[in-house]
Structures are given as structure tokens and as C-alpha cells.
Write a structure and sequence with these properties.
The chain has 143 residues and is an alpha/beta fold. The protein is built from 3 helices and 5 strands. Helix 2 packs parallel to helix 3.
């Protein structure tokens, strides 16, 4: 079996591409800084407004629950249908893209859910959703 008697050359690291990249980054940042200085020197008079209001973030989706006894809750606070209409109208004026989801108990009469939908319509809420649960068994589907 032959034995190696000489050593292979050690690998070398070519620094030229890395230096090129560093110089290009240096030039980029120098030019970008120059543009920022030129932009700062522009004489600009900003427009003025009489009043300023803070920008509000979009409210979370409002949840209306209709319980089996016909009582209604808005975000877990019990309300009557006129109160629901009033509170949703106020929220709609504050944020026009208000979203409401209605959760009706499966054992309650549909009349209670329909009355809640009418209260939302009276409050001019157009983005409505109704939550349901998907049945576990598909043997006897009911329609």
C-alpha cells in the first residue's frame, strides 16, 4: 500500500469578492446619505388643518349572543334589543366598517335570532355573520 509522502496544498480563501462587496455597500450608503441630505434641504411648507382626530384602529368583531331563553348579550354584557340597536348604531358611527357576528343557541326559537338580526339592520350594520357548528355525524342530515 503506497503512503503519501507529500502534503496537499492548504486551501486558500480568496478575499477579492468580499472586498468588492464591501466597497459596493460603502458606495451605496454614501449615495443614500447624500440623497437624504438633499431631501432634508428642500423648503416645504406643510398644509394645516383646523382640527385633528386620532386615528383609531379597527375594532374587533362585535359578538352578539342569543341565549336559549331569548336574552341577548353584546360582548358578554346583557342588553335589550333597543339597547343593542343603540350601542351598535353608536359603534357604527365611530367605525363605519363595523363587523358583527351573531351566535344563536340551537335550542332557542328562531324568532329571537330574527329579532336580533332586525335590531342589527336597524343599526345599519351591513357586515353580519352567523356562527354555526358543523355536525359530527352525516348519517341523518336535517334540512
Amino acid at each position: 500500500m503506497p503512503l503519501k509522502t507529500h502534503q496537499d496544498d492548504q486551501p486558500t480563501l480568496n478575499m477579492t469578492p468580499m472586498i468588492d462587496v464591501v466597497f459596493l455597500l460603502l458606495i451605496f450608503f454614501m449615495v443614500a446619505t447624500r440623497f437624504a441630505e438633499m431631501e432634508r434641504d428642500i423648503e416645504l411648507e406643510l398644509p394645516e388643518v383646523a382640527t385633528a382626530q386620532s386615528l383609531t384602529t379597527a375594532p374587533k368583531q362585535r359578538v352578539v349572543m342569543v341565549l336559549d331563553d331569548g336574552s341577548v348579550t353584546l360582548d358578554r354584557n346583557e342588553v335589550t334589543l333597543p339597547e343593542l340597536t343603540r350601542k351598535l348604531s353608536a359603534a357604527k358611527r365611530e367605525y363605519p366598517k363595523l363587523s358583527v357576528v351573531i351566535r344563536g343557541d340551537a335550542s332557542c326559537a328562531f324568532q329571537h335570532v330574527a329579532a336580533t338580526l332586525a335590531a342589527c339592520k336597524e343599526a345599519r350594520v351591513s357586515d353580519l355573520g352567523i356562527t354555526v357548528r358543523i355536525a359530527q355525524s352525516t348519517k341523518n342530515p336535517t334540512r
